[in-house]
Design a protein that fits this description.
Layout: E1 4-8, E2 26-29, H1 38-44, E3 47-51, H2 54-64, E4 72-75, H3 82-88, E5 93-100, E6 108-114, H4 120-131, E7 134-138, H5 141-164, H6 171-188, H7 195-202
Parallel strand pairs: 1-2, 1-3, 3-4, 4-5, 6-7
Antiparallel strand pairs: 5-6
Length: 222
């Protein structure tokens, strides 16, 4: 099983900290306080996950790029597209990743894009690794920014909704139903603008519990 080096702070790349639950040997370090033995850690790992801002992302690449020949490098830095990652890690197989959500959650969706350097076995390794933290959605690079924008807008809207609700015990209950009903509308292909009327037509939603966590694996190849 691949040994993973995670370079992420306490508030970034949090879902990856669940990798040991999937049996993956995980080494972690903080990008703002890189350890003195970083070179040794880079040598013994099979996969490097870098969750850092633009400045530290470049510092980390300068430190270890030459030690990652033919290894997989996964980056969550928003401003690093595949072209930039190839320049930073010319010897590696690079992957661009966005976590939905990057927080203390049991499962999350990882949206990834990678280039032609990935073999079928590399893709299989990626799927195994990400199955430990949630689900994997593979998209092409031109679609990545669009997906990121949609996710950002959705999170912003939900954040505003949470702020408007009073901090009572039923807040989580309300949000759970809002997200469940919106998901049902999207899956059915119904316009969200008319969700109030359509909920009446569909009926029965108020009497049904939201589905349990653990959705079917989905993958979109572009």
């Amino acid at each position: 099983m691949e040994q993973v080096l995670l370079i992420g702070s306490n508030d970034s790349g949090m879902p990856f900290r669940r990798l040991p639950y999937g049996g993956y040997p995980l080494i972690s370090c903080n990008p703002d306080h890189l350890p003195e033995n970083l070179h040794e850690l880079a040598k013994i790992c099979d996969v490097v996950i870098v969750c850092a801002d633009k400045r530290m992302g470049r510092v980390i690449a300068d430190e270890i790029w030459h030690l990652l020949r033919r290894k997989i490098v996964i980056s969550t830095t928003p401003s690093f597209d595949l072209s930039t990652l190839r320049d930073l890690y010319p010897l590696s197989k690079v992957c661009r990743c966005d976590l939905v959500l990057d927080g203390d959650v049991d499962k999350c969706l990882a949206v990834v894009s990678f280039g032609d350097s990935f073999s079928e076995s590399d893709v299989a390794s990626m799927k195994r690794i990400f199955s430990s933290i949630g689900e994997l959605l593979i998209i092409n690079e031109p679609l990545f920014q669009e997906v990121r924008a949609v996710v950002s807008e959705g999170l912003s809207s939900l954040s505003e909704l949470v702020k408007r609700l009073s901090p009572e015990d039923f807040q989580e209950y309300l949000i759970g139903w809002v997200m469940y009903c919106l998901g049902q509308m999207i899956v059915k292909g119904n316009p969200i603008e008319g969700c109030r009327d359509l909920q009446v037509k569909v009926g029965g939603l108020r009497d049904r519990a939201p589905p349990a966590a653990g959705a079917k694996h989905s993958e979109k190849q572009g």
